[in-house]
Amino acid sequence: MNEKQREYHKLYYREYRKRDEWKKYKSTYNAIRYDRIKTDVFNHYGRECVFCGERRFNKLSIDHPNDDGGEHRRSLKIGGGGINFYIWLIENNFPQGFQTLCISCNSRKNALWMWKTGKWVKKQPKCLKMHPEQLGAVL
Ligand SMILES: [Zn+2]
C-alpha cells in the first residue's frame, strides 16, 4: 500500500465511522460484550437476587457486603462501577463477599440488613419494632 492509498483508506474509514451503520454496529458490539461479561459474573455469583429471587437479568446488580461499595470502587480507580467493576471481578477471579441483588433490594438493603461475621443478618430497627418475619415480608 503506497502513501496515496493509505491516505485514501484513512479518509474512507473516517467517513465510514460517521455513518449510522457504524454507530449501530458499535453499540451492538458493546451491548454483546457487556452482556457476555455480565453473564460471566452472574453465573458465578448467582443469577437471581439472594433476597427476593428476582431473575430479570437487567434488574440484577452485584452488591458489596461491607456497605462500602462506593469506597471500594473508588479505591480501585474504576469509577462508577458498571462494566469496569464486572471486569475487575473477573480479573480478580471472583473475590468472595460479593452477591447478587436486584436493584430494588440493593437500595433497601442498607436499611434492613447488615453483613456480620461472614453472613447477612437482618437488622432489628428499634424505631420500626417489627418482628423479623415481618421484615422478611417487606423484602
Ligand atoms: Zn431483590
Put the structure in a nutshell:
Helices cover 55% and strands 12% of the residues.
Total helices: the number is: 6
By DSSP, the count of extended strands is: 4
Q: Characterize the overall form.
A: elongated
Q: Are any ligands bound, and if so which?
A: zinc ion
Instruction: Give helix and strand order, one letter per element, not per position.
Output: HHEHHEHEEH
- Which class do the helix and strand fractions yield? mainly alpha
Helix content: 40-55%
As residue ranges, the low-confidence spans are none
What is the count of distinct domains? 1
Strand content: 5-15%
Largest sheet: 2 strands, antiparallel
Question: How far apart, in Å, are the first and last alpha carbons?
Answer: 64 Å
Strand order of the largest sheet: 1-2
Q: Compute the gyration radius: what is it?
A: 22 Å
Kindly report the average pLDDT value: 78
Give a description of the structure:
- The protein is mainly α and 139 residues long.
- It has one domain.
- It is 55% helix and 12% strand.
- The longest helix has 26 residues.
- It is elongated, with a radius of gyration of 22 Å.
- Bound molecules: zinc ion.
- Zinc ion (ZN) binds next to strand 2 and helix 5.
Structural descriptors:
139 residues, mainly alpha, two-stranded antiparallel ribbon, 6 helices, binds zinc ion
